[in-house]
Amino acid sequence: MVGLAGVLAFTGTAQACVCVAEPLDERVDRADAAVIGRVVGETTRELNGARQKLLTFEVDQSVKGDVEETLVIRSPSGSDCDLETTKNAATGLLLTRAPDGGWLGTTCSLVTAGELVALGGEPRGGVIKVVLGILILAIVLSWALRRRARGVRPNLPGAPEP
Fold first, then answer.
1. How far apart are CA 64 and CA 66, in angstroms?
2. Which domain holds residue 41?
3. What is the pLDDT of residues 34-45, one digit of tens each?
4. Are 105 and 96 in contact (CB under 8 A)?
5. pLDDT at 64
6. Tell me, what CATH number does 90's domain have?
């Protein structure tokens, strides 16, 4: 009993970043912006006595929100909730807009880029694909109609005679 009291007396408080476990679509709904891109720069500064990390993030694709091509994201520094990413690696982030208009992120903001694209990323090149499809269809139809108007059939070996 005394040993247990000693253990309890000398244990400190556990500190960890607690992220809410909820489906990704709900997390995206709560976020002000959902982006895919990569961290290209990082600096640390103090703001109101607290250390902050400033991450320069180049956006490759915006899944939610109207964002610029380059964002500066503020994150805690020296805490369990630091936003830790690999530089120049594809990263998905769910961001919150600060009252001053800046972007905020923590370790809970991280998602895989693939999950974010699968959830709601707008497909790239959709208009081009439709235009090319219509163009190919028009070429095939014009070729078939011209052949039919001429009455020309290919002379294939083993094919029945007209």
1. 7
2. 20-148
3. 999 999 998 888
4. yes
5. 87
6. 2.40.50.120
